[in-house]
């Protein structure tokens, strides 16, 4: 997967520790039966950060989300650390909030900060009681190993059915100061647009107010994470949070000015590529799908149409089978919550091997099935939909639906 290049932005190493003043770590505490798998992670800032977050819209919310929201409300949008575990989601448990708060207390004690300055997150099996003992027994080890070089250990700690770590970072200039923004994400299944589709942690050394962090995060999530679907299931524990410690020394961003737009573009690049990494690593996936709906009358219509196509199980299955079935794409557009004139729609399927126009003015076209199958044999497929009803475009991302998705989820609790 190629990174989108933009003038003024440079991709750098370091993930959530690319920004100055941040350290991270991950370790195995015993929640996961595999002794080689990190299952407890932490991110820490040397100084207090402005913070913002967005959460799942599922009515069933994990206890960590409820505690994190309370903490950010209590501090007025401030935080210094993130503690996160995998294997157990700490959701639908009678003692869930108590356990999530205990995780904040354990982290705070070791870091010598207040529990309210800790963001807590969990991912894994829903409905199983979270044992706090293993976390308590390893929290000192986790903190002792904190380092800017251990961002990969933290990224590994949040993986569940993920097959690869997901990290990306960029640098850019604000007011003559070099700023850095980086993130890490996890997610392979139970992913569907509705904020935020997985656990995602972002850090920056830029100085930005909590209010503008929140606005930028919501705006960027709308056109990145919220346009992602692997299987149509919206998780109970989804969260995206961002911490800004101001260590870069730029003039604080307190208005929606040019500096704000520069920062927001950097945030977009990081969340865009994490979104695509999540889509490419969907459970059992063999192909990354990118659907572009152009020629829409407005952004919401473009997003809704693209998401409807990318979320269709029939479209996903067709892409897995390299079947250029435009009927399934038109069907998904037809049941989307939009007011589209289907008679104006064109559909093109493309990859590095070329492209094939499969629909014109809402009608299927004759084409070489052999050539189309060759185009769809690649591991990155582009579904280009021209609505021809306006000037706005939007993208959505997903993956194909394979036999392995069912295999993985048939025994997920094991």
Structure description:
With 414 residues, the chain is an alpha+beta fold. Helices cover 31% and strands 26% of the residues. It is built from 11 helices and 16 strands. A hairpin with a 2-residue loop joins strand 6 and strand 7. 57% of the residues are buried.
**What's the mean pLDDT score?**
91
**Class computed from helices, strands and strand pairing:** alpha+beta
| Morphology | globular
Compute the separation of the termini in Å. Answer: 31 Å
Ordered list of secondary-structure elements with their pairings:
Blueprint lengths: L9 E2 L10 E6 L12 E16 L7 H13 L2 E8 L10 H16 L6 E5 L10 H12 L6 H7 L8 E9 L2 E10 L12 E6 L5 H13 L5 E2 L9 E6 L13 H23 L7 E9 L2 H12 L2 H8 L5 H9 L11 E6 L2 E7 L2 E2 L4 H7 L4 E7 L5 E8 L3 H8 L4
Parallel strand pairs: 4-5, 8-10, 9-16, 11-15
Antiparallel strand pairs: 1-6, 2-3, 3-4, 3-10, 6-7, 7-8, 11-16, 12-13, 12-15, 13-14
Helix pairs in contact: 1-2, 2-3, 5-6, 7-9
């Amino acid at each position: 997967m190629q990174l989108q290049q933009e003038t003024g932005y440079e991709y750098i190493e370091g993930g959530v520790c690319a920004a100055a003043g941040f350290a991270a770590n991950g370790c195995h505490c015993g929640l996961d039966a595999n002794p080689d798998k990190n299952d407890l992670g932490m991110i820490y800032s040397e100084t207090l950060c402005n913070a913002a977050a967005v959460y799942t819209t599922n009515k069933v919310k994990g206890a960590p989300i409820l505690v994190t929201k309370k903490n950010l409300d209590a501090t007025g949008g401030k935080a210094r650390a993130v503690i996160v575990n995998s294997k157990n989601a700490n959701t639908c448990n009678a003692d869930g909030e108590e356990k999530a708060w205990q995780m904040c207390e354990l982290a705070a004690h070791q870091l010598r900060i207040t529990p309210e300055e800790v963001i807590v997150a969990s991912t894994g099996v829903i409905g199983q009681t979270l044992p706090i003992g293993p976390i308590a027994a390893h929290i000192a080890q986790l903190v002792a190993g904190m380092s800017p070089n251990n961002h990969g250990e933290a990224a590994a700690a949040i993986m569940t059915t993920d097959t690869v770590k997901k990290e990306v970072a960029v640098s850019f200039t604000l007011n003559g100061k070099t700023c850095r923004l980086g993130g890490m994400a996890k997610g392979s299944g139970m992913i569907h647009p509705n904020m935020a589709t997985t656990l995602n942690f972002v850090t920056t050394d830029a100085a930005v107010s909590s209010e503008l962090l929140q606005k930028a995060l919501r705006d960027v999530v709308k056109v990145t994470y919220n346009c992602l679907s692997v299987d149509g299931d919206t998780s109970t524990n989804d969260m995206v949070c961002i911490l800004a410690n101001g260590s870069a020394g730029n003039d604080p961003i307190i208005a929606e000015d040019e500096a704000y737009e520069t920062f927001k573009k950097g945030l977009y690049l990081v969340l865009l590529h994490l979104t695509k990494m999540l889509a490419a690593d969907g459970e059992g996936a063999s192909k990354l799908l990118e659907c572009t709906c152009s020629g829409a009358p407005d952004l919401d219509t473009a997003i809704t149409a693209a998401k409807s196509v990318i979320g269709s199980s029939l479209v996903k299955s067709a892409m897995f089978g390299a079947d250029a079935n435009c009927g399934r794409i038109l069907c998904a557009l037809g049941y989307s919550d939009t007011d589209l004139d289907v008679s104006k729609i064109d559909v093109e399927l493309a990859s590095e091997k070329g492209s094939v126009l499969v629909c014109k003015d809402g009608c299927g076209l004759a084409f070489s099935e052999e050539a189309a199958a060759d185009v769809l044999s690649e591991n990155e497929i582009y579904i280009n939909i021209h609505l021809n009803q306006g000037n706005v475009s939007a993208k959505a991302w997903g993956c194909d639906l394979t036999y392995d998705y069912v295999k993985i989820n048939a025994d997920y609790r094991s």
